[in-house]
C-alpha cells in the first residue's frame, strides 16, 4: 500500500546542480571543484576538494590535487616558494634550485644560509655534485685529526675548548661538544651549569635535562632566536630611518638659515647726488679749454 507522501517523494526531481546561497553552480565542474561558475575549469571553482593554489600571473586561485612546482603544501593551500627556489618545503627553504645554482645543505647553527640557493659556495663549504637531482654546498672534508680544523692557510689548528671536533674556530663551529659542554638549548656548545647556576643568568647549559626536555628547550630557543633576529633587524631599520630623518632635518634647517641671513644693503646714492657728481665732471671742461685744444 502506497501513501500519497511516498508517491510524491519518489516523483520529486533530483537537483542537478549545487547552490551556494545566491550562487548556482554550473554543470560538469572540474573534478577538483566543489561547485563552479564555469564547466570543466579549475579556476572557476566556488571551493576546492583538496588544495587551493594562487595563480602566478593574475589574481584568483585554482583547485589542485597536489601543488605545482614552485609551491609547497601549507595546510589546505599551496604556498609560493621564494623566487630563488625551484621547489621548496617552506617559502625560504629551498629543496631544489633553478639553473646551475647550488643548494647550501649544512644544517648547523652557524650557517644561517641553510637551504638557500647560491651561485658559489660560502667560505668553509665545498661543492658536491654526487647527487643527480641537485648540486649542493657541504662542509669541506676535514683532513686534520680530531680536535683540529684546517684553517684558510691550510694549517691544522686546535678547535675551541668547547669542541671535541669542529670545522672552524670558536664554539659556533663545533661539530661535537667537549665533556661538560652541551649545545641542546641554543645550538652551540656552552659549559654545563653548576648546582647554583641558572642557564638564563650565567649563559650555561642544564646538562641534567632529559632528551625530551632538551628538545622542547631547543624548539623554544629557536623561536626566541627568530624573535631576537627580528628585533635586531627592526632596530637597525629604526636607526637608519633616524639618520635619514636627521640628515633631512639638518638640510632643511641649513636652507632656512640661509634664507634668513640679513644682508647689509649698500648705501644708495640719490638722484641729487648723481646729478651733482655729473655736473662737477662737466665743469672741469671749460669752453675755452676746448677752443685752445683746437
TrEMBL record:
Signal peptide: none annotated. It comes from Anisakis simplex (Herring worm). This is Proprotein convertase subtilisin/kexin type 5. InterPro entries: Furin_repeat (IPR006212), Growth_fac_rcpt_cys_sf (IPR009030). Residues 272-294 are annotated as: Disordered. It comes from the Eukaryota. Keywords: Membrane, Transmembrane, Transmembrane helix. The chain crosses the membrane at residues 227-249. Residues 278-294 have a biased composition (Acidic residues).
